[in-house]
Amino acid sequence: MNTLAKSTALVDGIYIGLMSGTSMDGVDVAVVNFFQERIDFIHAETFEYPKSIRDRLYKITSNKTRHDLADIGQLDADIGMFFGQCTNKSIGKRNLNPSDVLAIGSHGQTIWHSPLGSAPYSWQIGNPSIITARTLISTVSDFRNLDMAFGGQGAPLVPAFHSAFLGESNRSRIVLNIGGIANISILDKESSMAIGYDTGPGNCLMDLWHQLNTGEQYDKGGASARAGEILPRLLERFLEEDFFRKEGPKSTGRETFNLDYIDNAIKSVGKREDFCPEDIQATLLALTVVSIANNIHALKSHNIKDIYLCGGGSANIFLVEQLKKALDSYVVKSTADLGIDPDHVESCAFAWLAQQRISGRPVALSTGGERKQLVLGALYQAP
To answer: What's the CA gap between 237 and 327, in Å, rounded?
Structure first.
């Protein structure tokens, strides 16, 4: 017996979305008011992780290290407390009370994503019970695993939101999100089902390499990559990864695209000290461009000409320049042209997913599997 009432009416009001992606640099917070299927942005802000959290995340997601469960449990609690603090700061800046907010939608911080095999799973930390206790706001989390249990990839989840707020009934378009991992949403005017999948690395490899060589968190504007030259043999080696040969729906993460991936590719064509760091930076940027472009060019049958960019990568000037060259038959714009700040599309999406859960509404996803419409997310009710 299904005990969850599936309401036909949306529960409008103020919701908060929390998004921390594969870049693992912090959390994006969006405070939004949903009213009659429209969005009113109240506040949006990004909070950087403290170094103590960021360093432990890098360690826990490293393939080279064995991990103590106690360390993971403590980090889960610490991130939950951090998310709660960021939420409280955000609502405080707009003089809101916890009672003004209907729910928080928290993606959590992914530490492992395993969509293949006999028992697929996805593991996010950032304890939602602690978020609820610290904010006194009901929190919805664990959005991925139900989709995976029914045969889906569990990611990306944002195409359904893209379809609801960035799609048009008379025009097809692609939304390209460049976070740590890049993904595309195909908003086909002929289909009500949101189709989306990962294309490969977005910013994650570029950030890792730049951090290793400069100590800076990311290559601002792509300046380091612009100063380098693409290494064709290394790019070919990068593209030999099995993920690039798969057709969508597909998803990936740091389990595949990490420093080991970079080092192994470099070792196959030479020694690290033989290469200029800027040349490797340029090659990693080219990898992001080529993998995105290959996936989009494969969609010619959809006859789509408009691409809208969002995510942190949309601020990388050199990356966007190279994408426009690789996609010269398309018109490449920003989601800002559709009314949503490209830095806060995903956090807004998780506020929307929280609204769907509170309303008991299923989310139309096409991440593989049986294409069921599922009510996503586990609810941690505030007192």
So the answer is: 23
> Which residues sit opposite 366 in a β-bridge?
195
Q: How many CB atoms lie within 10 A of CB 203?
A: 28
Neighbouring CB atoms inside 10 A of 241's CB total: 19
Q: Which two tokens stand for residue 327?
A: 């996609």
CA dist., res. 227 & res. 380, Å (int): 49
Complete domains list, the chain, with CATH: 13-153+354-362+375-380 (3.30.420.40), 159-338 (3.30.420.40)
Asked if residues 58 and 109 have their Cβ atoms less than 8 Å apart, the reply is no
DSSP sequence for 105-126: EEEEEEEEEE-SSSS-EEEEES
**d(Cα 204, Cα 206) in Å, to the nearest integer?**
6
State how far the Cα of 62 lies from the Cα of 82, in Å rounded to an integer: 22
Going 376 to 202 to 110 to 295, the CA torsion angle's sign is positive
d(CA 185, CA 153): 14
Q: How is 123-170 classified by DSSP, letter by letter? A: EEES-HHHHHHHH-S-EEE--SHHHHHTT------THHHHHHHH-BTT
Answer for the pair 75, 57: CB distance below 8 angstroms, yes or no: yes
Single-letter amino acid, residue 332: V
The string of pLDDT tens digits covering residues 192-246 is: 677 899 999 999 999 999 999 999 999 999 999 999 999 999 999 999 999 999 9
- DSSP letter, residue 359: T
| Pairing status of strand 101-114 against strand 139-141 | parallel
What is the dihedral angle through the alpha carbons of 102, 310, 367, 304, rounded to the nearest 10 degrees? 130
Please write down the long-range contacts of 229-232, taking CB distance under 8 Å and 24 or more positions apart: 229/276, 229/278, 229/279, 229/282, 230/279, 230/282, 230/283, 230/286, 231/269, 231/275, 231/279, 231/280, 231/282, 231/283
Which pair of structure tokens corresponds to residue 88?
Answer: 């409280």
CA distance linking residue 238 with residue 337, whole number of Å = 34
What does the block give as tokens for 360? 């008991």
pLDDT classification of 370: cutoffs 50, 70, 90 = low
Among 123, 129, 155, which residue's Cα sits nearest to residue 142? Answer: 123
Q: Taking Cα atoms as reference points, which of 199, 313, 298, 207 lies closest to residue 251?
A: 199
Q: At residue 255, what is the residue type? A: E
The 10s digit of each residue's pLDDT in 136-178 is 999 999 999 998 888 888 888 899 899 989 988 788 999 999 9
